[in-house]
């Protein structure tokens, strides 16, 4: 990546450019007010929070990259996993200990994908690589886990009669709930599968776009994007299957009876 003497890249907006982009927020607020959507305050709060959070994270990452090295980067990724587990766990209301289930699932997704690529030296084990790539993996695993827990919680209520009918026929709890577990996992995966199908035809993914803006050769950017794309798909698959199996097992007591929904 070639940088200017001032430390900026020609493709990166200056702070004046960032200030000018505030006009886009004004446009959004104008639309919200004009259409009487009642979201003006939320838009302003969200935009202010976004820039404050990003500036704070940028400052922290500067310290992280300079002073803490790989251990600090892994600790940062662990923090992202904790936040992701809380977010995904909130979607699984009705599943006992859903936050714990989400934490285990997201950790498995991150370890199986990011860990494999680092161990195989496909990506560098440097803070500047581990943190942003880890963030993408945690985000994908969180998204997949959220969908799985949400669907399993819903299926345990809406399909209760079918599940109990299978239990009455003598099926073990795992088999009685298996069709609903597969439905949850399929729902979590289908969006990412569709993104893989259409990549490059509808849009250029974020990692590739960032590298192109940084001046990287397109074929080099494509190689990196392929690795990232497969990594994210695998993260969703691993996190989703772990979440689905753990969550579905917690819906039944020791006597193979379906528990009452947890508020």
Description:
- By secondary structure, the protein is mainly α.
- The chain has a domain at 69-249.
- Helices cover 76% and strands 0% of the residues.
- The chain has helices at residues 15-20, 22-34, 40-91, 98-119, 127-158, 160-168, 173-198, 206-213, 218-249.
- The model is unreliable at 1-8 (pLDDT under 50).
Low-confidence region ranges: 1-8
Number of helices: 9
Largest sheet: none
Which structural class best describes the helix and strand composition? Answer: mainly alpha
Number of strands: 0
Distance between the termini: 52 Å
Strand portion, in percent? under 5%
Give me the oligomer status. Answer: single chain
Shape: globular
Report mean pLDDT, rounded to a whole number: 86
What are the defining features of this structure?
76% helix; 263 residues; single chain; 9 helices; disordered N terminus
Topology, element by element:
Layout: H1 15-20, H2 22-34, H3 40-91, H4 98-119, H5 127-158, H6 160-168, H7 173-198, H8 206-213, H9 218-249
Helix pairs in contact: 2-3, 3-4, 3-5, 4-5, 4-9, 5-7, 5-9, 6-7, 7-9, 8-9
Short description:
The chain has 263 residues and is mainly alpha-helical. Helix content is 76%, strand content 0%. The longest helix is centred in the N-terminal third of the chain and has 52 residues, at 40-91.
């Amino acid at each position: 990546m070639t940088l200017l003497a001032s430390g900026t890249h020609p493709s990166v907006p200056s702070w004046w450019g960032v200030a000018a982009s505030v006009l886009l927020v004004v446009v959004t607020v104008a639309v919200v007010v004009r259409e009487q959507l009642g979201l003006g305050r939320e838009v302003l709060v969200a935009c202010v929070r976004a820039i404050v959070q990003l500036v704070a994270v940028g400052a922290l990452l500067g310290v992280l990259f300079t002073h803490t090295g790989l251990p600090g980067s892994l600790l940062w990724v662990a923090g992202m996993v904790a936040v992701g587990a809380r977010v995904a766990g909130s979607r699984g209301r009705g599943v006992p200990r859903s936050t714990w289930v989400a934490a285990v699932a997201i950790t498995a997704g991150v370890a199986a994908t990011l860990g494999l690529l680092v161990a195989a030296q496909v990506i560098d084990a440097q803070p500047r690589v581990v943190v942003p790539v880890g963030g993408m993996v945690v985000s994908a695993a969180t998204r997949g886990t959220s969908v799985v827990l949400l669907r399993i919680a819903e299926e345990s209520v809406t399909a209760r009669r079918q599940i109990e009918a299978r239990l009455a026929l003598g099926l073990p709890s795992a088999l009685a709930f298996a069709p609903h577990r597969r439905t949850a996992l399929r729902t979590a995966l289908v969006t990412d599968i569709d993104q893989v199908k259409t990549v490059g035809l509808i849009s250029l993914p974020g990692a590739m776009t960032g590298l192109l803006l940084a001046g990287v050769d397109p074929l080099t950017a494509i190689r990196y994007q392929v690795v990232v794309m497969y990594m994210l798909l695998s993260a969703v698959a691993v996190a989703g299957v772990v979440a689905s199996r753990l969550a579905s097992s917690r819906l039944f007591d020791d006597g193979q009876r379906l528990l009452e929904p947890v508020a």
